[in-house]
């Protein structure tokens, strides 16, 4: 996507709490408003987790449907749902919304990973089952990699003919227990990608801001949002997800990049219309 950059907003996540940032959107209306504000600020993709009314993460299909409908009433942002779910969800639970809702995009975790003291298990057979389900329902995968080995696992799936181009990766750095963020680590991950792959850099916690500059330097795309980071600056909470997207848009513009629109992403990533 020459001269353009794609910004994803991960507005809620599974683990962030209102205690960490009271502006965290949880209810369908809150998420829809956060999505609309993020889109107005330059986000083309919404990365979506959903919660129950009391804030617990859920992979419930009805809840996903309710939230997606609320988002659709407010904005045409591309919706990418999680299949990573939350710590403790089974692969079957995480996969259910793909067939039931046929979203435009969804995340596909490419390996087992520590999440602090918790962990999420993704074996190769699980990944193959996910890839088959994505293909059956024409859902574009964001291949989320938390470590170098995950990229090679995704390349095994590509070699087996289980994934369709164009390949879009999510390179997640700084999850405790996985690969820490550094410019060198990002370059190592980028060099391991298959030819012609696009990638979004997801820097968790304090790496959120430097990783945006680093994404631009390496020709990647940017993700921001409360799933990854709730601060605007050291010790200063972000007022909203949109505030983080606004800054990402400004950084991109200073680098002479235009922010891609949702429809440009649909065309470029060949999303199901
Ligand atoms: Zn997520």
Overview of the structural elements:
This protein has one domain (4-268): Aldolase class I (TIM Barrel, Alpha-Beta Barrel). Strand 11 (168-173), helix 6 and strand 12 (198-203) form a beta-alpha-beta unit. With 273 residues, it is of the alpha/beta class. The chain has helices at residues 28-41, 61-74, 91-101, 124-136, 148-159, 183-191, 208-217, 241-254, 262-268; strands at 4-5, 7-10, 45-48, 50-51, 57-58, 78-81, 105-109, 113-115, 118-120, 140-145, 168-173, 198-203, 221-224, 231-233, 236-237, 258-259. 38% of the residues lie in helices and 21% in strands. The strands form five sheets. An eight-stranded parallel β-barrel has the order 2-3-6-7-10-11-12-13, surrounded by seven helices. A two-stranded parallel ribbon has the order 1-16.
Sum up the overall morphology in one term: globular
| Low-confidence region ranges | none
Helices and strands, in order, run as EEHEEEHEHEEEHEHEHEHEEEHEH
Strand content: 15-25%
- The assigned CATH architecture is Alpha-Beta Barrel
Count the helices. How many?
9
Heterogens = zinc ion
Count of structural domains:
1
CATH class: Alpha Beta
User: How are strands sequenced across the largest beta sheet?
Assistant: 2-3-6-7-10-11-12-13
Q: Portion of residues in helices?
A: 25-40%
